[in-house]
Design brief:
The chain is of the alpha/beta class. Helix content is about 40%, strand content about 15%. The structure holds beta-D-glucopyranose.
Length: about 375
Amino acid sequence: MRTKIFVAAVGAVMALGLAACSGGGAGAGSGSGSTGGSSAAAGGLIGVAMPTQTSERWINDGKAVKDGLEKAGYTVDLEYAGDDIPTQQQQIDQMITKGAKLLIVASIDGTALANQLQSAADKGIKVISYDRLIRDSANVDFYVTFDNYKVGVQQATSLLVGLGILNADGSAGKATGPFNIELFAGSLDDNNAKFFFDGAIDTLKPYMDKGTLVVKSGQTSIEQAATLRWSQETAQKRMEDLLTSTYSKGDKVQGVLSPFDGISRGIITALQNAGYGPTIAQGLPIVTGQDAEIASVKLINDGVQFATIFKDTRKLADQAVTSASAFMAGKTPEANDTKSYNNGVKVVPSFLLQSDIVYKDNIKSLLIDSGYYTEAEVKAGQAG
Ligand code: BGC
């Protein structure tokens, strides 16, 4: 998961940088101890604030961004906030105090960083919003992310394919339903959650209107479907509650829209504990996902989870590094979308990447052939 290109001159700078930080490194929570050294003068310090290490995608993102920036000659302070908002605020404050020249931030609560971003702006520090849009602040200079609405469309599409309403090529399938489904959304303080849900609902609505899909609990609003902090346990509990409240009299649920693999695994556990499955072939409902986390890719390979969405974190990290390097050189990074992401104060120029639906039969072409995972990792359900 590493960029292979290594420019010689940059390599020399990096070697110096590594020598200066050896022993400490710029690891999570280490504070990196790398300011003020000769290396910082070479490329400058960049602060990278990530939300949590409980989900493997953010670990991969953090590592890829740090590696890429170091290869480009910068010193990196990478911090994880344990999904705690005050911790993330403090970490960003400290990055500014340590002399960061630029910040790359994947927020926990997108509305909670306006003060930090104001301090950054006062010092001329550029801010790149990473994956999640920081809201309610004029001081967000750029946004690198995926086409989040389309991710939602893909999640709903995979549900329709799993139920047999659509074929994987998008043509109409044979199944006509009606099918009972339930809907899960992400954390409401994450701007992405709304984009995913909107994309999914716009795709499912025609089938809900026709009665092909029935949300039997009646819980169709994002507020009802939301999962605070994208928590697996919270999702498991809500699924257990839905099974008790809505499906205890013999009705069966046949599909569940899930916006994230951790949530999917909570849902699957609740379903299996209630006697469904354990596999799709044995009656487990179709459950969707996102992030192609290794534990879920194994479940897909084993016929338990139906699908996930692959967002190549290597590409997002590369894009963040490219955009950061542009700002550091006094230039403006190239955007490919200047309309979609209004953060409540302004439309933030964005670079959007594309995602893919992962089914059992394309795990190899999407994830193994691209070097994202090895076959052994998929079999084991564990990376590394
Ligand atoms: C990201 C998703 C991730 C979710 C939970 C969202 O902001 O875009 O990729 O599944 O957060 O970590």
